[in-house]
Amino acid sequence: MIFNGKSIKYGDNVDTDVIIPARYLNTIDKKELASHCMEDIDKDFVNKVNDGDIMVAGYNFGCGSSREHAPIAIKASGISLVIARSFARIFYRNSINIGLAIVECPEAVDGIADGDKVEADLDNGVIYNRTTGASFKTQPFPAFIQKIIENGGLVSSIQKGVIQ
Q1: 37 half-sphere exposure, CB direction, 13 A CA radius
Q2: Helix, strand or coil for residue 88?
Q3: Per-residue confidence band for 18, with pLDDT thresholds at 50, 70 and 90
Q4: Which residues, other chains included, contact 139 with Cβ-Cβ below 8 Å and sequence gap of 6+?
């Protein structure tokens, strides 16, 4: 799995209420959720994000409630991958369940600035900052996680018979 995009960077403890504010949880429409993604921390996010972009964040990304709306909003906004120092455990699993690629790599977070061009080869566990030329090692996705992400999430993977 290879991801390419511009980085959009945030700090530590970005919680699910910031990712998608609770006032928008009365919908499951992905486009509607995406239109409000990150608005309480970055009013311009929806205008600057492009399909394939890569979100970079600090410690404890996705802390807070267990809602799946948060990774759904991020993925629907066009973000292809989230790289963070660490993730809240339930956010991590919700992300995989809905098919949003996420990876922990503190060194990459330190070495990527907002707006840098990033390539992540998660088959081989390497993240490249194409703006600076730096590279960072991370754990490759296990094959079953790759299948889930490639097929759009856990439910979709089961429906397609990719995993059982």
Answers
A1: 27
A2: coil
A3: very high
A4: 103, 104, 125
In sequence order, the 6+-apart residues with CB closer than 8 A to the CB of 150 are 1
Tokens for 161? 């018979």
Sheet holding 126-129, edge to edge: 101-104, 81-84, 54-57, 2-9, 117-121, 126-129, 135-137
The pTM for the full model equals 0.94
Q: b/e for 15-45, b at 16 or more Cβ within 10 A? A: bbbbbbbeebeeeeeeeebbebbbbeebeeb
Q: What is the C-alpha to C-alpha distance for residues 5 and 78, in angstroms, rounded to an integer?
A: 10
Q: What is the pLDDT of residue 155?
A: 84
Nearest to 6 by CA among 130, 101, 149, 96: 130
How far apart are alpha carbons 50 and 65 in whole angstroms? 27
DSSP bridge pairs for 2: 121
Q: What is the pLDDT of residues 60-85, one digit of tens each?
A: 999 998 889 999 999 999 999 999 99
Q: At what angle do helices 143-150 and 89-98 cross, to 10 degrees?
A: 60
